[in-house]
Structure formats: structure tokens, C-alpha cells
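User: Predict the structure for this protein chain, please.
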Amino acid sequence: MTESAIPAVPVVRRAVPGDGPALGELDRATWSTLHAVQPRPQPPYEPFFDERHPPRDILVAETPDESGEPVPAGYIRVVPPTPLACNAHVRQIQGLAVAHWARGRGIGRALIRAACAAARDEGASRITLRVLGHNAPARALYEAEGFTVEGVLPGEFFLNGRYVDDVMMGRPLTP
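Assistant: Here is the predicted structure, written as C-alpha cells:
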């Protein structure tokens, strides 16, 4: 992917079932101890979409490849955090990935903004997420998009021989 092939503003759309293989590949390619609490996926790989992770919960950022065909540059998963009616006004980001070749070009920012807009369209008034304390790039992006730290679970995870904080962030979804 060449730098000129990536548009200034990516197209962000709702995922469709056919995106599963490409998103699974993207997910595996971007796996990192910076954000993952599960071990690195190993073959045979589980399908990207399943009963708990349907396409309707995923937004995909697309950019054209060298031949002009749209390819996934990233995705974000946004879901209600619980099935409770008293919590229906909240959406939660439960996954964000940007392809290595597309980083630093506004893909993550576009996905977060699209997630907030989609959540607002669904009637949500608030959006939250959890991020590992040592993931400084993600935390900086979320803060730049209006998220603030609302809580910290110190040493919640033991990863690569050290304890890592689980940071809760959130923001209102005012227009």
C-alpha cells in the first residue's frame, strides 16, 4: 500500500458477513501485547464473526489498494455493555484494530468518530471503553477524541511477566 493510495478520510461502513476472513487476518496481523490480554491466536483460527460477534457490531474502515479495490484498513466493535434496560443508553468499544500499513493516517480517529455517530444514531448518550494502562498510543488517541479516565483497576492483568492496569474511559455523546 502506497502512501498516496490512502485517502485523507477513509470510508467507514457497517461490516457484512463476507468481511470475516479479511477482518480475521487483520486481527491476527495486529495482535500485540500492547492491547491483547488473550494469547496470540493459533491455527486453526476461529471465525471472526460468531454468535457473540456478529457483523452488525463492527464498523470497517476501507481504503483502496494499489488496483483501486477497497480493502479493510481497520475495524471497531461497538456494543451495548450489558443486556440491561437501565444501561441501554451506553455503548462500549470492545475492539479497535488498524492495519500496520494504515497507521498514523487517521484511520483510528475516523473509526472512533464513526462509532460515536453510530452509537448516537442508536439512541446512546454515552460511550465507554477499557484500555490497558501501558497502551499509550491508544490512550492518547482516545483522549484526543474526548474520552477521559473514569477509573483504573491497578494490576488487573499479568502480562509478559508484569502487572498491567485496566483503564476505564468514557465520554458523553453530545452532538
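The helical segments are 20-29, 107-121, 136-144.
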